[in-house]
Each structure stands twice: as C-alpha cells, then as structure tokens.
Amino acid sequence: MAMSPAALPLPSPLSSEHGALLAQFAARAETASLLWASGYLAGLARALDAPAQPQVPAHPDAGVRTTVLYGSQTGNARRAAEALHARLEAAGLPARLLRADAYPLRELKDERLLYIAISTQGDGEPPDDALAFVEFLSGKRAPRLPQLKFAVLALGDSSYPQFCAIGQRLDARLSELGAVRVAACANADLDVETIAAPWTETVVGLAQELLKRAPPQAAAAHATVVPLRPHAVPQAHGRERPFAAEVLANQRITGRGSARDIRHLELSLEGSGLAYEPGDALGVWPRNPPVLVDALLAALDFDGDAVVAHTGTELPLREWLSSKREITRLSRPFIARHADLAADDALTRLLSPGNAAQLASLLGSRQLIDLLQAAPARWSADEFVAALRPLQPRLYSIASSRKAVGEEAHLAVAHVEYDNGDGLRWGAASHFLASRGDGDRAEVFIEANERFRLPADGARDIVMIGPGTGVAPFRGFVQERRETSASGRNWLLFGNPHARSEFLYQTEWQQALKDGALHRLDLAFSRDQAEKIYVQDRLREHGRDLYAWLETGAHVYVCGALAMGKDVHAALLEVVAHERGVDADAAADYVAALQAQGRYARDVY
User: Fold this and answer.
1) Which end of the chain, C or N, has fewer beta carbons within 10 A?
2) What is the pLDDT of residues 106-154, one digit of tens each?
C-alpha cells in the first residue's frame, strides 16, 4: 500500500522548521507540482555543489557559439529549432535558442553563425512572434553582415500559394546584406521532419567545422541556454502521444437562420495529466470523413483492404486515407504529380508563375476528390499514399479556464461543410468533432501559446477583440479573471453577421456584465443593418476610450481570422495616430512598443 506524500519520512538533514514546511507543501501539492519541485530542488543542489565558474559577459562572444532563432505560429518551427538546439548541445557545441521576439536586434551585427527556423502563415505572412525581426531585417536599419554565416529552415503549407515565402525572403535578405549562406534554404511542407531532419544533421556538421577552432574552455563557458519554459513539467501525453479525451457535450450554439454551424464542445481531460493556461490551444488528431474515403477509393478503383507499405509502416489503404493522410486539402506538389500522370496540359499551365491567382483559387475551393474526378489518372496505391502529405493535427483555442471547469477543455468549433457544385465537402477536424457524440473520444494534446497570456498583474485592464469563434480564448480569460478575483477591467469586442442567430455565448456575456466579470461589451453584427459594421469599426468609433485604456497600461488581445487581424491592426494604428496626434511611423513605433512589452498579442490564423 503506497503512502501519501505527507506520510513519507522526512530526510534527516532538514531542520524541524524546514521539515514542517516541506511536509505541508507535500500534503497539498498535486502530482505535477511535486515532480516539478523535485527537479527544481535537485537542480539547486547540483548548482551549489558545482565548482565555481568564471563569470562570462552578458553577451558572450558570438564567434564561439551558434544562435538558433525561430518564429512559429503553431509550434512546428519551435519544435524544429528545439531539436536543432538539442543536437548542437549533444555535439558539445555552444549554442543558444531564442524566439524571434526575444532576440536582441542590436546583437545581429556581431553574430557569426545564425540558424533560423521560421514558418509562413496565410498569404505569405510572418508568424506573430517574428513580425519585428522580419520588419527590422527588411528595413533600412538592418546592418551589413559580412561576418555572418547562416542557414534557414523555411516551414509552410503547400496548399497555400505563398509556400515558405517568409523563410525564402529572410534567406535572400541575409545574403543581400552580405552574409554567407552555408546551406541552401530548406523548404518544409506539413511533413516537416522529412526536410528538417536531414537539414539539421547538415547544419550541425557545418557548425562543428565552423566552430572547431574555438578554445574548448571558452566554448564551455559561453554555452548559453535560454529557458523559454522554465517551469514546464514533462507530461505523459503530447503531440506524438495524444490523450483519448471523452466528449462530454457537443452543442450547436448558432440559432435558426444561421448559415454557420458552430459547436460548443466539452472534453474530459480526467486522468490525462494535461494542464493548460487560458490562451493555450487544444491539438486534435482527426479522422477523415468516411464518405470521402469511400469516394477516393471508388474514383481510383482501389481496394481499401489492400495493405500498403510506406516509410516502414504497413496499413490497409483505407486506414492510410482515414487517419494518416491529408485528403481534404490540395497541395502544389500533388497537383504537379497528378498533372504528369494525367497528361493534363491545363493543370500543368496552372502551375506556371503567371497563373498564381488561378492556382490559389483551385487550392482554396477544391479538394483531392475534385481533382481526381475532373482529370482521371492511373495511380498505384503505393505511389498515391507516398504522394499525399501526412495528416496533421488541428489546433483550437481553448474556450475555458481550468480553475472554472476542472479537468475539462472547452472548444468553439466552426463546422466546415459546403457544397462546391460537385458534392458536399468538409473540413477534416471540424467535421470529425461535429460528428462526435457524448461518450465518443478524440485524441488530443495541449499546445502552449506563451505569447497569448493574461497579464501576471491581475490589476491590469485587458481589451479582447474576438469576432466569430475568435471569441473562444476570451471565454477562458473572463472565467480565469473571475476565479482569481482579478481587479483589472475586462473589455470585449465581439462580432458576427447576425445578432439573433450568431451571438455566441450571449447569456454568459450578459451574466458576466451583471456580476462584474465583464466591464464593457461592444458588438458588431455586420449584416443587421444596411451598412456593414465590423469589430475594427467599433475600435475606431471608441478610439478615445481605447487609447485611454492603453495609456493606463491595458493589454490588447486579438484572436480570429488572419484578414480580420490585419484590419484590426490597421484600425489600431489609426486610433493611435489620431489620439496621439502623430504620423503613421510614430503610431507604428507605439504599437511595436506594445508588442515588445507583451501588451499587444495576436492569435490569428
């Protein structure tokens, strides 16, 4: 029979006072807290026992270390950078790992070896945490860099026309500034590892060559680890080992007359050990719609039970298409291969540089089945599976606070279902979730979003801008602020087409206004009047109030579609310029300062 932590005998070296404190902590702490504390205390002990080290400058000599820099929207570039950093350390090479918005731009002129992993989102946009870095490097203030050697890992999604555009842009710009490219820019699609792994091995080998003359003692002294998540506790479940969460509720929260099917889902995390903070995302591993899988098998005249081997794994073809391969999104590489097999000149012309708009239209409106039916081709099952990209998890902003809901995670999910003229089509994850009933399960994990956090000081005011399902994290924010008795004011700006049928979580917001958990609510229902009104219009309308909140230290958060995020950003710049009486450049500097201070955070997609 296991003893409780409080019953364990206390170590003899402790004084009675320290022993009592430790026993009190052990009796009340959760398992995760105990595990973290054990590692933390062990680390302190090792530090005390370690021999004294010579002091090193705050900014170590860039000539004897590698800087690994990343910009990441969904976590893929961060994971690739962390893997590279770990390999450099394992090879005994001094290295530091930095998120782009934590990088001291003044140090760029002194860097000697820089590796960058950066993603591209939407229509060729940088991730939010790399906005300032990309802008600086692209601008007039960027220094000449003849001393710098570099390599870039560009991440993207080939179902978008501007595939890996940001990484390619940085690669070209660094070369333009005089830096020396030591490895070609590597362009990684959704199957990141197939490109990232060999690139990592290549650049680690190059680093060994480039740094081999650094004095061993200097290298050891200058090894720099930047703790990005100093209190993170290893969890039993994660991206590669998801937790099968039970669906507790699946409720449509749009009313009659709405063209949108938006679901509120509640999933149980009981027994998972998963922990999240407001602002984090829930990763969901979907299964593709069975109807769509059947249609693909019929179109290609394939046997779903036939076993296909790929990358060391053998599965029935139906299972490959159901759970291992992307079949709801087209990609440029697949179109190119299909055009060759079908000998389709029209498809081939579509891929030429002058037809970017037509290609974007195809990628945005058609799915794999549409292409196969419009331009038949003879594929083998093995080649077909190899040509498709791996199925990726989808990330959804968590719409709850653990302090309010316990071991649950709530989501607001827009069910993607439409008829494109050739039949019903669906979004993989949203249809999977919308189809889950009470008691069904979904494989999930937590994706931390450290740049989208409530202020540590609960007395700070917050402004939350979240139209549509972008309101999800702000439900968690308001719950958290209520549970922690935060004294700061909470202002929500929400919008959707129609108030009657699409006012998401209406009764909750109204109750929050009554009980003081929400101090201000401004609404923009775009189609309820002749002139369309959006959340950015409300920002301009209430610009004086917004600026007053900013001047007293408020934090601003934006969540939702990328296009909306651009419009809100433009409105914020206009408000600042007008209220401060300054030009556009000065307004941009003011907003950039908010971002640098962590007071302006965006989660746009």
Assistant:
1) N
2) 999 999 999 999 999 877 899 989 998 999 999 998 999 999 999 999 9
Measured distance CA(60)–CA(317) in Å, rounded: 54
DSSP element (H, E) containing 446:
strand 441-447
Residue 2 is predicted with a pLDDT of: 41
- Tokens 């140090």 sit on residue: 107
Q: Considering the entire predicted model, what is its pTM?
A: 0.81
Q: Is 305 exposed, middle or buried (0-12, 13-18, 19+ CB in 10 A)?
A: exposed
pLDDT of residue 20: 56
Instruction: Assess contact for 130 and 100: CB atoms under 8 A.
Output: yes
Largest CA distance in the chain: 83
Q: In degrees rounded to 5, what are phi and psi of residue 556?
A: -115, 135
Q: What is the pLDDT of residue 43?
A: 44
CA distance 168 to 164: 6
DSSP state, residue 236: S
Q: Which residues pair with 604 in a beta bridge?
A: 560
Query: 3-state secondary structure string, 382-441?
Result: HHHHHHCCECCCEEEEECCCHHHHCCEEEEEEECCEEECCCCEEECHHHHHHHCCCCCCE
Structure-derived torsion over alpha carbons of residues 461, 465, 468, 473, reported in degrees to the nearest 10:
-40
Judge whether residue 440 has pLDDT over 80.
Answer: yes
Q: 209, exposed or middle or buried, with CB in 10 Å at 0-12, 13-18, 19+?
A: exposed
**Residue 451, phi-psi category: left (phi > 0), alpha (psi -120 to 50), beta (remainder):** alpha
What is the amino acid identity at position 489?
R
- Report the residue count for the chain: 605
Q: CA torsion angle for 547, 549, 553, 558 (degrees, to 10)?
A: -80
| pLDDT value of residue 191 | 87
Calpha distance 84→78 (Å, rounded): 10
Distance in angstroms (rounded) separating the CA atoms of residues 557 and 562? 14
Give the count of beta carbons closer than 10 Å to the beta carbon of residue 115. 28
* Nearest to 587, CA basis, from 543, 557, 555, 553: 543
Q: Is the dihedral of CA 84, 87, 91, 97 positive or negative?
A: positive
The HSE-up count of residue 103 (CA atoms within 13 Å, CB side) is: 28
pLDDT tens column, 491-542: 999 999 999 999 999 999 999 999 999 999 999 999 999 999 999 999 999 9
Tell me how far apart the alpha carbons of residues 346 and 57 are, in angstroms, rounded to a whole number. Answer: 61
Beta bridge partners of 419: 424
One-letter amino acid of 97 = L
With vertex at residue 63, the alpha carbon angle to CA 60 and CA 69, rounded to the nearest 5 degrees, is 75
427 vs 432: CA distance, rounded Å: 8
Going by C-alpha positions, the residue among 525, 482, 521, 480 that lies closest to residue 502 is 525
H or E element at residue 70: strand 66-71
What is the chain's percent helix, strand, coil content, to nearest 5?
45, 20, 35
- H or E segment and range at residue 80: helix 76-90
